[in-house]
Amino acid sequence: MKVVKVNSLREFEVEGEISVGSFVLTDNIIGVSATIYHQEEELTKYLSKGDMDVLRSFLPDISEPKYITKCYALMDTKLENPKNLPKIGSDVKVLDNDSIKKIHVKNGELYIPYLPFLIKKDIDVSRRIVTKLIELFPEYRDVLEIILAEIEFRLIEEVDL
Asked: In whole angstroms, what is the distance from residue 102 CA to residue 117 CA?
């Protein structure tokens, strides 16, 4: 998977389908996948499937529809806010549980500096991240459940009753 678009210092897009809430690494930037969407060529809106097949035989660079995953940049590998943009074409790797544990521990304590940004940006992804951290760090379960309750409260607060 590769970075295909950089929207801002805190958002980039990756070609491929990465499940929502997965941690990714690209160019020393740790991110989280937020949304997945289906990108089609503009021509497919106007041509039938048969016409597209004929056109592809002459123009093979017109590809099949592809999935794009929008990601939020959380921090760099030095455990601070990202200062550099990911580069278009950079490889993207989904992090395993051991890597996720390493980036969330600083001086022997749980470290989640990106959480205020993420809660403001996307509450659903924040909830998924905190739930995942509860699984990975059972010793911090009480603190993480309090954070999760605050996120749930913000969700309820947004709903007009």
From this structure: 20
Amino acid 141 reads R
On whether the CB atoms of residues 23 and 94 are closer than 8 A, the answer is yes
Question: Do 72 and 84 meet the contact criterion of CB atoms below 8 Å apart?
Answer: no
SS (H, E, C) the chain: CEEEEEEECCEEEEECCCCCCCEEEECCEEEEEEEEEEECCHHHHCCCHHHHHHHHHHCCCCCCCEEEEEEEEEEECCCCCCCCCCCCCCECEECCHHHHHHHCEECCEECCCCHHHHHHHCHHHHHHHHHHHHHHCHHHHHHHHHHHHHHHHHHHHHCCC
pLDDT, tens digit, 9 for 90 and up, residues 33-43: 998 887 666 66
Sign of the Cα torsion 27, 107, 114, 96 reads positive
User: Is the pLDDT score of 65 beyond 80?
Assistant: no
